[in-house]
Amino acid sequence: MAAAGPGRDFPAGPPLRHSARVRVLHCADVHLDTAFPGLGPEWPLRRRQAIRSALGRIARLAAELRVDALTIGGDLYEDGRAGADTAAFLGDVLGGVPCPVLIAPGNHDPYLPTSLYARHPWPGNVHIFRSREFEAVAVGDMRVCGVAHLQPKGTPNPLAGYRVPDGPPAVALMHGSEVGALQFEGAAKVDHAPFQEAEVAAAGFAFALCGHYHMPRATPWLCYPGNPEPLTFGETGERGAMLVDFTTTPPTVTRHRVATVSVADAEVDISACSHREAVIEAIRAAVPARADRCVRVRVVGDLQPTVAPAPQAVLEAVRSAERCCVIEWDLRLADDLDALAAAPDIRGEFVRILLARPDQGSPLVREALQAGLRALADEDPGLL
Ligand SMILES: [Mn+2]
Q1: What value does the mean pLDDT of the chain take?
Q2: What CATH number does residue 102 fall under?
Q3: Ligand 1 mean position, distance from CA 155 (Å)
Q4: Does residue 266 share a domain with residue 309?
């Protein structure tokens, strides 16, 4: 069997594809019970509740759209964080969906003897794939063939060398990394179950319903719906659940947004602020008092010499029950500091050393500069 890689050959020409009288709603990467570190004491729980709301919307959408199945491409929950409450919630929500619910566990929710999948009772309409080999479930006049991750790491490519048995049109349901898109996912994204798009057709599948990449994407051969509820800042693209209509060839993919919270970026210039309360007010103005918006604030500008930024105090003053934010500091140096650094004396040397640090724009270094300059202010620099 040839290893999956850029040089692998695939059969020439498109394989036979058949349409089916089937429509499915596909989602993935819901990540129930995400930790949301760095959001303070109360927002992480709210954000986790928002994820549950998004899944509830997906379940209702499946009913409204009268789909033939709801498919879930892995990372439904965070194994190790999700407990009995989440299992009961999932049973309630998914059991209320008036069609089969098919789940292909991923690397965050692998099918383990200790996992929710194995330990808790699931409603009769929920099917959890529990093998690394494709298993077929009939959905209308089509087959949905799912696989599971059985461990958090090291799951191989289930498509490598696989050929779907003869029968009705078949689509794959899997959590994996289509290697052609790995470059868009950032260096931190691990290529769990790596595969090539061409292997979908080579295996005899008409399409692949995928999970793992959080950036939404759809091609004639596969789709990644993305995480339905925001999980980190900087997420772009219309993500949510995807209605996949197999009555056309290739299938028609329609995106449905289900998020209840949105994330945003804001930049605040505090060059005009002469004291900490003014900084707080400037940042507050950039963070709307809305429970459904979370803002990453980048504080920029020249910090006036009188301001003691005290980042933690500023964060605690801005963040509240109504305001969800994180604050990143990226301050420039005031012109007079550059002049001080040019002086051939001890004060100049002090400024030069701190300005040479890679984190010279951080509040810590800015406060160190201010404290040091205050301490030296009454001295004759030439005597130091
Ligand atoms: Mn994921």
Answers
A1: 89
A2: 3.60.21.10
A3: 14
A4: yes
What's the gap in Å between 210 CA and the centre of ligand 1? 11
Q: What is the pLDDT at residue 7?
A: 39
Cα(190)–Cα(177) distance, integer angstroms: 8
Q: What pTM does this model have?
A: 0.83
Can you tell me the mean pLDDT for 125-141? 97
Q: Are residues 169 and 301 in the same domain?
A: no
Ligand 1 mean position to 292 CA, how many Å? 22
CA of 212 to the centre of ligand 1 (A): 5
* Token pair 């919630």: residue: 89
Helix and strand counts by DSSP (H, E) for the chain:
9, 17
- Answer whether residue 87 shows pLDDT above 60: yes
Residue that is last in its domain, among 256, 283, 306: 256
83 has pLDDT over 70: yes
- For residue 176, report the distance from its CA to the centre of ligand 1, in Å: 10
Is 8 part of any domain?
A: no
Do 221 and 107 have their domain in common? yes
Distance from C-alpha of 312 to C-alpha of 55, rounded to nearest angstrom = 34
133 plus 179 within the same structural domain: yes
Q: How far is the CA of 29 from the centre of ligand 1 (A)?
A: 4
How far is the centre of ligand 1, averaged over its atoms, from the C-alpha of 294 (Å)?
Answer: 20
Q: Of 256, 285, 310, which residue sits at a domain end?
A: 256
Centre of ligand 1 from the C-alpha of residue 103, in Å:
14
Q: How many CB atoms lie within 10 A of CB 243?
A: 19
Tokens (6 digits) for 147 = 């696989």
pLDDT at 162: 96
Q: Which residues pair with 174 in a beta bridge?
A: 210
What distance in angstroms lies between residue 247's CA and the mean position of ligand 1's atoms? Answer: 29
Domain containing residue 112: 23-256
